[in-house]
Each structure stands twice: as C-alpha cells, then as structure tokens.
Design brief:
This protein is mainly α. The chain has one domain. The two termini are 14 Å apart.
Length: 77
C-alpha cells in the first residue's frame, strides 16, 4: 500500500493529459475499499473501468508457510 507512489504516478499521467487519481486501499478491508471508491466517485464520477494490481506471493516451500501468511495470501489474492 503505497499511496504516495500512486499519487506520483497519477500526477505523471495528468501531466501527459490523462485523467487520473491515485488511490491506495487495503483490499482485505471492505470499508477501506468502499472509502476508496467513494473518493474516486467524488473526484472523477462513476467508475467505468477498473484496473487493480493487488497480489502477494510467499517465496517459500508450501510446508513452511505459516497459517497466518497463508490466510493473508488468500485474503489479498
């Protein structure tokens, strides 16, 4: 979750003439996602196309992944 990076990319896109808004949200937190969508709708109007990039990976043998890490992977992905 890097809101500052999202804002920088949105600024670069706007400098090139695009309409963009950088928003970071924890996809495992429904309220955070709803807040992010509310911000987008307020700033830009209805959402017609959505590109997401949430994803996690654990570079460890399956038998070494803790139950907590496994649940986090499931929640995000």
């Amino acid at each position: 979750l890097n809101g500052a990076a999202a804002q920088r990319v949105a600024e670069e896109l706007r400098a090139d003439g695009a309409v963009a808004l950088g928003v970071a949200a924890d996809v495992t937190d429904r309220a955070a996602v709803e807040d992010a969508f509310a911000k987008v709708r307020t700033e830009l109007g209805p959402v017609h196309i959505l590109v997401t990039s949430a994803g996690l990976v654990d570079f460890a043998p399956f038998v070494e992944i803790s139950p907590q890490s496994w649940q986090r992977l499931i929640d995000v992905n």
